[in-house]
């Protein structure tokens, strides 16, 4: 019973963070939110505490108001992190390893736009120069192309 309650608490916390435009770390919750809100998923395979390009992308794009405002209304954000120092639960580690294998990730950052079922609708977006405005414009064009 405690395990079930704990699972629901983790799911509720993941959904509340994701609903606020923050990065979810729960794959099933992210897909459920994407279906419920009819939004694509931006999945970010990253090494938040060691990957130089990942840290740069976070600093130049993902942490910026322009990106956050767009993402809050238009995307479900999913972070698949492979840190070296930051602690993660065994469940998150296992989920991330499975997703890494499923998507055939070969380096970080690897970023895909997915439909609500978790199917790719873009090639690897990765790091892009130009700041949040250009990144958002690229995402908009990918979504527009998918819808066309």
TrEMBL record:
Residues 4-144 form the Thioredoxin domain. PROSITE patterns: THIOREDOXIN_2 (PS51352). Residues 1-18 form the signal peptide. Keywords: Signal. Pfam families: Thioredoxin_7. This is Thioredoxin family protein. It comes from Haloferula rosea.
């Amino acid at each position: 019973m405690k395990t079930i309650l704990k699972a629901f608490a983790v799911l509720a916390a993941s959904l509340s963070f994701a609903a606020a435009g923050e990065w979810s770390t729960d794959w099933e919750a992210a897909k459920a939110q994407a279906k419920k809100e009819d939004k694509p998923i931006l999945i970010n395979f990253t090494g938040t505490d060691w990957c130089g390009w990942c840290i740069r992308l976070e600093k130049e794009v993902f942490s910026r108001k322009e990106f956050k405002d767009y993402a809050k209304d238009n995307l479900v954000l999913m972070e698949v992190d492979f840190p070296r120092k930051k602690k993660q639960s065994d469940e998150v580690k296992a989920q991330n390893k499975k997703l890494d294998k499923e998507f055939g990730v070969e380096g970080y950052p690897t970023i895909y736009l997915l439909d609500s079922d978790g199917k790719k609708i873009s090639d690897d977006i990765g790091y892009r120069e130009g700041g949040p405005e250009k990144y958002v414009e690229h995402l908009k064009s990918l979504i527009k192309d998918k819808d066309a």
